Protein: nucleoside-diphosphate kinase
Amino acid sequence: MAKPAVERTFVMVKPDGVQRGLIGEIIKRLEQRGLQIIALKMVKPSVEHISNHYPTDEVWIKRLGDKGFNVFNELGIDLKEAMGTADNLEAGKKVRKWLIDYMTEAPVVAMVVEGVHARDMVRKIVGSTLPNKAEIGTLRGDFSVDSPAAANLEKRAIKNLAHASETKEEAEKEICHWFSQEEIHQWDRPDHKAMF
Ligand code: IDP
Ligand code: MG
Structure:
């Protein structure tokens, strides 16, 4: 019988994770939870490849702007002054551009991760998008204090070490975007017999 709980997700060590020597730490946290790396490579992505990795629809771009805006609201900072616009879509477009600059600064490590509830498990291990709000024990909570207020005022993306797919659709699209079928390997972890 097919195992309904077993999922595949896409994970990437971002340029700051690579530059800070955290590739091993990030992979360790995935493996120790029982997740399996079934594809892995280091890539220096082109602007086009990264731009196609992130969604282009307006709903997603608007939501990107939201994350920073909420923090500005909490701090009582004037949105228009900080972002040069009070429009979420326009702010989102700026953040998307900063994100592409960030993601093409240095190589990234791309992976396909498989395991029980892999998408959710990896998102939990990685932690909140905003490192200043991420729980201690998560990657972003343990290794970063970056925040939208700090990043947006410096006109750059939030540096948060790793990317992980959020939905089934996102995972499927991202896995195909980064890996061919031949680069993905089916193999067994014998210790799973003792784990589940
Ligand atoms: P996620 O990486 O936790 O899935 P998304 O909302 O999908 O978060 O955003 C993609 C990436 O865009 C984030 O990981 C972060 O690097 C960057 N980002 C998100 N919101 C902002 C912001 O308000 N300012 C600067 N960068 C942002
Ligand atoms: Mg995301």
